[in-house]
């Protein structure tokens, strides 16, 4: 709402079009960074992407950003976190060890990804600590995230069409 209240959407869309490839690349990088840097929230980017790029292009760019961010988080955790996790966890049968074991299966990771659908960075980093392979990880990670991405990008695209149509009829 605030975005539409303070900015002329047509003007912003024109500026993004003038930016060429940089506009979409910045969106993808911003979305990826919200997964890589866990405290950052990507929630506002979803409707904004739908508003600025249209539903399909915004949706596609967000999915690419999610995939890129998830991939980087997975490999950061896999390369740098696994040795530390094993050192701290050892062979103890505690909750964290059991959770990582559960996520080592495709079904277990699917359940974890569904459970943390609004916090994709948690299963991305946790999967890197588990034994799940990268291919099942990225397929599940991406597919589960597509529905909420479509809904929220669709909200932005819908609001844009309603507000642009409303301002055109008011003139």
Question: Describe it for me?
Answer:
- This protein is an all-alpha fold and 171 residues long.
- 81% of the residues lie in helices and 0% in strands.
- The protein contains nine helices and no strands.
- Helix 3 (22-36) runs parallel beside helix 5, helix 4 packs across helix 9 and helix 5 crosses helix 8.
- It is elongated and about 55 Å long.
Helical amount among residues, as a percent range? over 70%
Strand content: under 5%
Number of E-state strands: 0
Main sheet makeup? none
Q: What separation lies between the terminal Cα atoms?
A: 21 Å
Counting helices, strands and paired strands, the structural category is mainly alpha
Q: Poorly predicted ranges (pLDDT <50, ≥5 residues)? A: none
Evaluate the radius of gyration: 19 Å
**How large is the count of helical segments?**
9
Shape: elongated
Series of secondary-structure elements, N-terminal to C-terminal: HHHHHHHHH
Mean pLDDT: 83
Could you outline the blueprint of secondary structure elements for this entry?
Layout lengths: L1 H5 L2 H10 L3 H15 L8 H9 L1 H35 L5 H9 L2 H10 L5 H9 L4 H37 L1
In short, what is this structure?
81% of the residues lie in helices and 0% in strands. It has 171 residues and is an all-alpha fold.
Tags for this entry?
single chain, 171 residues, mainly alpha, 9 helices, elongated
């Amino acid at each position: 709402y605030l975005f539409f209240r303070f900015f002329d959407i047509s003007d912003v869309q024109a500026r993004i079009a003038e930016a060429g490839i940089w506009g979409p690349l910045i969106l993808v990088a911003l979305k990826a960074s919200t997964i890589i840097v866990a405290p950052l929230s990507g929630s506002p980017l979803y409707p904004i992407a739908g508003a600025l790029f249209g539903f399909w292009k915004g949706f596609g760019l967000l999915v690419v950003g999610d995939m890129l961010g998830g991939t980087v988080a997975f490999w950061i955790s896999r390369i740098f976190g696994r040795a530390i996790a094993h050192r701290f966890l050892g062979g103890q049968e505690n909750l964290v060890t059991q959770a990582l074991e559960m996520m080592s299966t495709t079904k277990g990771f699917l359940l974890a990804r569904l459970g943390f659908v609004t916090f994709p960075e948690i299963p991305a980093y946790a999967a890197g600590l588990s034994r799940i392979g990268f291919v099942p990880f990225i397929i599940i990670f991406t597919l589960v995230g597509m529905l909420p991405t479509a809904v929220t990008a669709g909200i932005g695209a819908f609001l844009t069409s309603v507000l642009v149509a409303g301002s055109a009829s008011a003139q």
